[in-house]
Amino acid sequence: MSIGVVLGDASRSDAAVAHSFTYRLRATAVMLDTMKFLRSAGIDGWGGKLRGPAGGYVLALLVLLGSLMLVLLYWRGAQQRELQLAETEFVAETATITELLQQRLINYELIARGGVSLFASVDRPSAAQWQDYVDGLKIATYYPDMLGLGYAPYLDRPQLQTLQLGLRDEGRGFYIVRPAGIREHYGPILYMEPAVAANQGVIGFDMFSEATRHAAMAAARDDGTVHLSGGVRHVGDTGTATMGVVMYAPIYRKGTPSTTQARRDALKGWIVVPARVESLVAEALDATTQYKNVALTVHDVEDGMKRLLYWAPMQVPALGKPRVFSRSVMLDVYGRHWQLDFMGDAQASLDARTTELRVTFAAGVIASLLLFGIVLVLARTESLAELKAERLSESYRRSELRFRNAMRFSAIGMALLDGKGAIVDANAALAAIFDTTIDALVGSLFDGHFVDDHEQAIHARESVATTDGVYRTTRQWRQADGELRQVQLVYAPVPGEIGQDVASLVQVEDITERVRAQASERSLARTLETRVALRTRELTHANQELEVFAYSVSHDLRAPLRSIEGFSRLLGERYAGALGDDGKDYIARVRTAAGRMDALIDALLKMSRVSRGTLTRVPLDLSRMAGEIVAELRVAQPQRQVDVLIEPDLHAVGDAALIRTLLQNLIDNAWKFTRSTQGARIEVGRGEIADAHADDQPADDLSSFFVRDNGAGFVPEYADKLFRPFQRLHSPEDFDGHGIGLATVKRIVERHGGTVSAQGQAGEGATFRFTLPAEHDAAD
Which residues, 6+ apart, have CB-to-CB distance to 101 below 8 Å? Predict the structure, then answer.
């Protein structure tokens, strides 16, 4: 945003100058039109009723008034444009502020999901473990708008009593839940870090008992996603007008169940992120200072009712009726609807922008005065010129003299020819070209000075003749020293005087050096082509060396991995009794990590090979390929019951090995992510599907295909991460893999000139659409 503003400020000065120049041109045009009108009315100063200097003064005064009027119109129009530009920048600023707020809440979500991951690896972290995790985030440094990061378990009454007894046995004393009372379920705060006095005071507070918090916690529990509460007063904030919100991220015992009831049964608790809205807005805008003149009001909208969360008033001048920009934006954030109302001082923005306009206005006035002086001088000059022109009676003779002088003193050779091609007159430049005198040229045949064939030259002239009688040709003549040179001739018809047979004017230009330069350019072009071919061979050799280097690096990386795996295996076999259960577990993890690293190296090599090599495009039967891949999966896992539907006659053009790898990765993913789905179903088909976007339509020379499943799916907000190497949206404990498959799919599709996209919902399956060259392009 800041770069865009700087460029906009720089361009406004150029635009102002351009507009000023345009209006001065318009003023000149008005002046000329006024001259024509005055002449037609017979009141100009060049022979009308106001002959002499007085007429020029009147015309100059009219031009001055007209130019000043245009400058004033330009000033008013420029003010309006600047106001519109200020409003456009205000809209852009509000969009940026909205994005900053949304990004800040996304950071909250990422922090909360990190806490969820901690609970996924440990059944219930100890207070020290939770403190270490929160201290590592450095909330006070990077997120001062967060009051803390906590954990609230989801308990019924027996589970609460068990927790209280366990905490007492651990030496933490009595864990008292407030408010008191018997309820079906509880959601008390167990941990809240950092351990400042305010956060220690909320330990034991049952958020599930308060209506606003209860609604957000229940929504997060039932749909398995992060939810934000409505406006609340944080514990200990009594007597202050500051509103706050709380973000809840649900924690389940084993992944995220697929049904609402299952999620309720599997819920362990929530990661709690409390924050004040005022601090949230301040931190979101702290990265820049350009939005200080924009006032913001935030309302939480629910069932048509608005509740104020944040208000920052703007001081507007009280003189007259102030001009104010305003804009409202609805922002959907984690189950809540926030209405952002922005206000900006339009008059202040306009005042800040009109400094250059004032300079331009002053320049326009000065230019008008200069134009007034120029018109006055021109009027006086024209008046004197007309007076002198009236004294000249031999205009035709003077015109003839000018023509003769123009030809005589021209730097290009010229000759007047009669109907038979004889030279009637010539200039000094032509005599210099032929190395002779003007007297020697007059009377000689023009074609006799050249050494090439006359008839061939005539044919060449006729082949390039234009409709107005002008034609060009190229001929050769030999100098006295024997050097052969070339000239370009341009013939044009010229009417001669009465009694003199002047038929045409020919211009003669020596182009010998130009022709030689063009020949040299062609030679250089051939040399450049040779150098390009040489560079191409060098680049091919470099690519081959890079491939050898990749395999060498993979070998060097595998050597220490084999050592790690081998020594770990020997250590586990020879010293199993001394290591104990924990030691054996550590050894097993080391060997597993080494195996995963080796598999990652293989995956990287496979992905690098996708970008190299030559594509062999042949017609392919994608239906047959998909059937073979599914058959292999059924043989490998006969216990799986998956309903697979493959549309017949799926044809495309591409490299057989790469397209098979593409289908293998997509179908393998669908097979893997439907592992925990009852009634697993996989579809492979062609054409548009129900949830396709209108702007994703394939081009005429591409065919669209899709692979769809009803498995685990993914969160749509992170769809752009799917095709990046090593980016995974599911934990390795739930679904194995290296995060290379979809990145390989993207590279294969793009090498074939197509596109790939993904759509899905968590727990509702996923659809991958890709395009490939159509079968009718095989000949191409």
Answer: 280, 281, 284, 331, 340
